[in-house]
């Protein structure tokens, strides 16, 4: 439990969420606020990612977008804040 007014935050360009092991996902629980940047998190991958994210947080996702069908998706990100802090 953190002292009032103190929160630990993380901003990370994750690069390869699908390759992360269970230790990675469990390790996220030590942070109070997180911004995880992953370019490929398009709408179709969001359900898989949601199943991996730690419980006890309010999560918001910004899906990656493509300008055209041939281009790689860009600007995907997940933002999480511990529920006690979000209230």
Automatic annotation (TrEMBL):
This is Uncharacterized protein.
